[in-house]
Amino acid sequence: xxxxxxxxxxxxxxxxxxQTALRAVLWAAHEARLRRAPLRxxxxxxxxxxxxxxxxxxxxxxxxxxxxxxxxxxxxxxxHTQRSDHEPEQALLEAADRAQLLVLGMAGGQRLTDAxxxxxxxxxxxxxxxxxxxxxxxxxxxxxxxxxxxxxDDPATDSAALRTAFDDARRHRTPLTVxxxxxxxxxWRGHLHxxxxxxxxxxxxxxxxxxxxxxxxxxxxGLRLLLGNPVDLLLREAVHARLVVLGTHGRGAAARAVFGSxxxxxxxxxxCPVEVVRPSAWHAVSGTTPATAxxxxxxxxxPSTPAWTNHPHDRGELW
Length: 319
Description:
Layout: E1 11-14, H1 19-35, E2 39-44, H2 54-72, E3 79-84, H3 88-96, E4 101-106, H4 121-125, E5 132-136, E6 148-151, H5 159-172, E7 176-182, H6 192-215, E8 221-227, H7 230-238, E9 243-247, H8 252-258, H9 261-269, E10 274-277, H10 279-286, H11 290-293
Parallel strand pairs: 1-2, 1-4, 2-3, 4-5, 6-7, 6-9, 7-8, 9-10
Antiparallel strand pairs: 5-10
Helix pairs in contact: 1-2, 7-9
């Protein structure tokens, strides 16, 4: 076990001695192996004030257990540990400034509200200098073949989330579902005008997303445009997903304080890991700018080859 600083930006995982945190360690170790990145395990121990006191021994034991678990997975990962004297939120935010990804655990069924936040996951996700994955539930859902789901409002402003999701699908060799939810009273049976409107929206989304298929020809991508509450639809997709990716568009201190309502509610109830991607943090890590993050529009399209798969068995789906 070492506290030296790795040369490449690491995948960072926060631990606090709980089983929830250890599940996050498993997820982070697997991700670090696929990214060929070092893994840094961070524990905030402001209580460990005496070099030889019980607090220091407890902190060292927490880090040692997490380190051993990461190494026992058989992953070819360079594992490092770090004990911080700061409070958890500050320690994780500082670690995120030097990371390519921050992974946190949050117990299943834990409720998050604006008035009371019983976890560091929400405030850290809204402020971290890199993308943040929150691992929830009682198991580590790394099942091969499970898709990654990305929620998209506008492809033009969600390029960071889209690129994160496409990169993840390529890295894990899994399908990708791009989900766009539109509020509505329900299916449009008998409402021709509403159906025409939805068909037009599907066409616009298909055109806007086609350049992503050109950039990632090896990713099996499906587009779903559904009527309903975005949170409910994302949670439904998450049941069979390996990862849900969400972009945030908050600007300024006030926006960061309230966080996105969709992100907050999905983090609150999602059954699989959720990756929160703030554009400014993602561009800082990836070295891109908003102008270079999204692929250029395709100059040539091939009508005989559908750009996106769709799923007609879903209620509210468009062909």
